[in-house]
Amino acid sequence: MRAAWMLIAAFAMARAGAVPADDPVIQVDFANPGLSPSQWTITLHPDGTGHFRSQMGKPPEGGQQEIDTPSVDRQIQVSAGFAERVFDAAGRHNWFNEPCESHMKVAFQGWKTFTYSGPQGRGACTFNYSKNKELQTLSDSMEAVAETILEGARLETLLQHDPLGLDAEMEFLTDAAEEGRAQQICAIRDILQRLAQDDEVLERVRKRARVLLEHAST
């Protein structure tokens, strides 16, 4: 397990090294072979622009939905306010040049590597669970953003291959957004706008899409 941690951290640092020093960027790499997708990466700039990439993993056994989450590779946009909070937190933690793994005996939640590259230098730390409340909250927030983006990809797939499946998926997304498990709904604005205007999907789907768009961060 420790070897996998070191490989993830080295991979993240190598990728961060390719970013020009005058272009501040924070990268978050997540890996958990027990999930699908098993790996995803978010890169984020101070203005809220960024990129998301994920890789499909082995679907969990039992109760698996017919259409799995596809691999994703796309540019993203989150709110400038959210990006500012992420960079502020990075600054308060020495741009991730500090230990962040708790080494506590807690359930495996997936390795998270936070990397900063920019005018302040470079730094990275990897953890399954952090005792630092701010870092753990930051990790939870980034995972919630990833969940939003992955949900958007599921909605696109369902719209194309199983429109009736959108009803349950939109109910799930609405609940996740209300509970904070999905954040930065603005990152999937395009698919929500398509659903809100599509007369061929259920009215419940269009209504939920409109409600989510009303509360999406800008």
Give a structural overview.
The termini are far apart. A six-stranded antiparallel sheet has the order 4-3-2-1-5-6, with helices on both faces. Helices cover 42% and strands 19% of the residues. The chain has helices spanning 2-16, 80-92, 133-161, 166-179, 189-196, 203-214, and strands spanning 25-31, 39-44, 49-55, 72-77, 111-118, 121-127. With 218 residues, it is of the alpha+beta class. A hairpin with a 2-residue loop joins strand 5 and strand 6 (121-127). The chain has one domain (2-214). It contains six helices and six strands; from the N terminus they run αββββαββαααα. Helix 3 runs antiparallel to helix 4 (166-179), helix 4 (166-179) runs parallel beside helix 6 and helix 5 packs across helix 6.
Instruction: Provide a count of the helices.
Output: 6
| Structure classification | alpha+beta
As laid out across the biggest beta sheet, the strand order is 4-3-2-1-5-6
Query: How far apart lie the N and C ends?
Result: 40 Å
Q: Report Rg.
A: 18 Å
Number of self-contained structural domains: 1
Shape: globular
Order of helices and strands: HEEEEHEEHHHH
Strand content: 15-25%
Keywords:
about 220 residues, alpha+beta, 6-stranded antiparallel β-sheet, about 40% helix
Short structural description:
The protein is built from 6 helices and 6 strands, in the order αββββαββαααα.
Please write out the topology.
Elements: H1 2-16, E1 25-31, E2 39-44, E3 49-55, E4 72-77, H2 80-92, E5 111-118, E6 121-127, H3 133-161, H4 166-179, H5 189-196, H6 203-214
